[in-house]
Amino acid sequence: MAKNAICLWYDKDAEAAANFYAQTFPDSAVNAVIRAPGHYPEGKQGDVLVVEFTVAGVACVGLNGGPAFKHDEAFSFQIYTEDQQETDRYWNAIVGNGGQESECGWCKDKWGVSWQITPRILMEALRAGGDPAKRAFDAMMTMQKIDVAAIEAARRG
């Protein structure tokens, strides 16, 4: 068990979410499924209560706590990609599995967790600063899923 883990609150689908993440992202796995030892406000003894999982090497805990709290954009996973093919694969997996598109490389999965699917070329352009960074930034601001070729072209001018 990791010393530190991100805890994500789910209504009742922590196990399904963890399985989806494990199938979608490398270095991801479902590590443990813990069932409730007794009844609790949103479930009964034997229901899945906690799921320990890893997403792209990051330790996480999914808690089936009921509908009291919802995910929002204040928390997101940022997944760095190497090229358009990898960007498309992750974006399409999330959006195509009941998720929704947003702006500037952000999308939400069907459980409401926010994801930033971010090509490394975009971050490199922003880090470089100056006019190339501004052009890449301006191009990104017009996109939903990031278009790697468009970012590269904007960076070059």
Molecular structure report:
- The structure is a single chain.
- It contains five helices and eight strands; from the N terminus they run E-H-E-E-E-E-H-E-E-E-H-H-H.
- The chain has helices spanning 14-24, 84-96, 120-128, 130-140, 148-156; strands at residues 6-10, 29-35, 48-55, 58-64, 76-81, 100-101, 106-108, 114-119.
- The chain folds into two domains: 1-69, 2,3-Dihydroxybiphenyl 1,2-Dioxygenase, domain 1; 71-157, Roll (2,3-Dihydroxybiphenyl 1,2-Dioxygenase, domain 1), CATH 3.10.180.10.
- It is α/β, with parallel strands linked by helices and 157 residues long.
Offer a quick outline of the entry.
With 157 residues, the chain is α/β, with parallel strands linked by helices.
Portion of residues within helices = 25-40%
| N-to-C series of helices and strands | EHEEEEHEEEHHH
Structural class: alpha/beta
Question: Poorly predicted ranges (pLDDT <50, ≥5 residues)?
Answer: none
Strand order of the largest sheet: 1-4-3-2
In CATH, what is the class of the largest domain? Alpha Beta
Task: Please tally the β strands and state the result.
Answer: 8
Number of domains: 2
